[in-house]
Amino acid sequence: MSGAAGNRRAVRQLPAAAAGQADERSEAGQAATHSLERALLLMKVFQGSAKPLSHAELVRRSGYSKASVSRLTATLVALGYLDRAPDGVRVQVGVRGLRLGQRYLSNSLVQDAARPIMQDFADRFDMSVGLAVADQLDMVYIQYCNGRKIATLRLGVGRSVPMALSSIGRAYVWSQSPEQRQRLLFGIWKKSGEHGPQVVARMERAFGELDAHGYCLAAGEYQRDTFAISVPLALGNPPLRMGLNCSAVGALPDREMIREQLAPALMKTARLLMLELEEVDSSCF
Amino acid sequence: MSTATRQPHPQAPRQRRARIKDVRLVLRAPHPPGYRAGADAGTVGESAVIKPVERGFAVLDAFLGTDEWLANQDLAARTGLPKATVSRLTQTLTALGYLGYSEQRRKYRLGVAVLTLGFAAMVDADVVLQARALMQKLADDNGVFVALAGRDGLDMIFFENCHSASSNATVGLGVGEHLPMASSPVGWALLACLHENERNYLLDHMRPYHKRDEWMLLRQKLADAQQQIADKSYCLSTGDWGPEITVLAAPLQLAQRMPMVLLCAGPARSLSKARVEQRIGPQLLAVRARLGAGT
């Protein structure tokens, strides 16, 4: 992230007149990866939803200029990653990215190994169980199992949640080395703007819970009427840090139930996952 | 994607269903020569495309081939881009999590961030979640293959596949895989439900990929499918997708969603006309109605 920000600054500081023949190649290179980065980020503002967004909404969510949103949108539509909505004005996520996601998941060695272990927990407690890895300042679910009766929580494989606002993200940040934790907290603080202090304070409260009990809890923060309990874990060899959570819609169970049953069972699930994937090359996750 | 036929596991039909990679019987219609999978109908002029973005996505697309791990020189060969450009792109894509790098192999593979390019929106969209259980029941009750497909450029792409526990029928395509729109009943069902302008626009772009007589035949079949859909809301075809394969396809149009097609397929001998008309056809339409779609 910081490297990319550096590139951007460098490009901006280059006066147009000074961009002579010699500099042209490297400058063009930086500008090139910059526009790619922006296109990739524009895909993220859809937040895994099929809902069409207007041009104004894309400008608002991405923070890019109207002109660059137009150009990026036109490119992404031409490449099939975005589609014009039936109204011809708004755009929605196209089907192109589905193939890449599908390929990533079919390559991943975590998918199949983790499913039975997670499904067992999901069935036993009738909750959803998710396994997520970090993607910048978000957590992306790479496996997600629903209990038999639950179909309401609108999350699934490939969805992402902000690291700062979800218990699974907080558990992940907590599990990092002190330096890395500081780096992430700094990024979150900066990204949250005026809410930075509050957001980080809430995260630190979760760290307190994790220090004391090894798990943390969030209720009604990211999605209303839902609660989630999360634990950090590291899978594979060399160990890759991730987060594991269980979540459900409805009222929070009482503290005792969480402390005596859910949390220990979730930690046991995490241990089973670690054991199952102990020998697996984590570069193949 | 490994659509290659694998030896079936006779003991475990239930597990097989979950692993769409394990395909039993490949019935994929052949691509016409010169056909590019996912080729877009080109809604924007070439000049509007930002080249570096196109190149970045071309690097990602190169991983859709058979090899999981690719080095910079492999990517250069596959994309036709200069090596320096490729290494700059792979560096950026790796820093952002779209690619992963293995020091040991000195190669790249897809990273978790590619899931943010629309996978969730397509696969876990509410309609697919809802459809999954209904489709599976339809598949199990009738011993047929059931799928939900949409359009990607000039191809049909599968969002969800359900295999019946008791039957061998499958189309040999995994979720996220492609089928040319022009030559399959699935594509005809989709074309039938589009607005005339859009249909003609797509047909104009498909035309160059086909020989003249072949094209006339496809147009005839499309017209027939359109007529069937107008009459009974789904179209039925035998032998167009693979020998001895019968396909029922019904367009599915939901508010705020791209048009889709709900289909069943199975061996022709087990799908008699009477059985289709009295049982499977109405059940297919019932599933469609449950998903909240009119005609």
- How much strand content do the residues of chain B show? 15-25%
Q: What do the pLDDT scores of chain B average to?
A: 78
Overall shape of chain B: it is globular
Rg of chain A computed from alpha carbons, rounded to a whole number of angstroms: 21 Å
Assembly annotation:
heterodimer
The secondary-structure element order of chain B is HHHHEEHHEEEHHHEEEH
Helix/strand order of chain A: HHHHEEHHEEEHHHEEEH
Number of beta strands of chain A: 8
Total helical segments of chain A: 10
Structural class of chain A: alpha+beta
Let me know the largest β-sheet of chain A.
6 strands, antiparallel
Domain IclR-ED (chain B): 113-295
Keywords (chain B): DNA-binding, Transcription, Transcription regulation
Pfam family, one (chain B): HTH_IclR
Protein name (chain B): IclR family transcriptional regulator
Question: In short, what is this structure?
Answer:
The complex is a heterodimer of chains A (285) and B (295). Chain A is an alpha+beta fold and 285 residues long. Chain A is 52% helix and 17% strand.
What is the fold's blueprint, element by element?
The complex is a heterodimer of chains A (285) and B (295).
Chain A: H1 2-13, H2 21-44, H3 55-62, H4 66-79, E1 82-84, E2 91-93, H5 96-107, H6 110-125, E3 128-135, E4 138-145, E5 160-162, H7 167-174, H8 178-191, H9 196-213, E6 216-219, E7 226-235, E8 240-249, H10 255-276
Chain B: H1 13-18, H2 51-61, H3 72-79, H4 83-95, E1 99-102, E2 107-110, H5 119-123, H6 126-142, E3 145-152, E4 155-162, E5 178-180, H7 185-193, H8 196-206, H9 212-232, E6 235-238, E7 245-252, E8 260-267, H10 273-290
Antiparallel strand pairs in B: 1-2, 3-4, 3-8, 4-5, 6-7, 7-8
Helix pairs in contact in B: 3-4, 6-10, 7-9
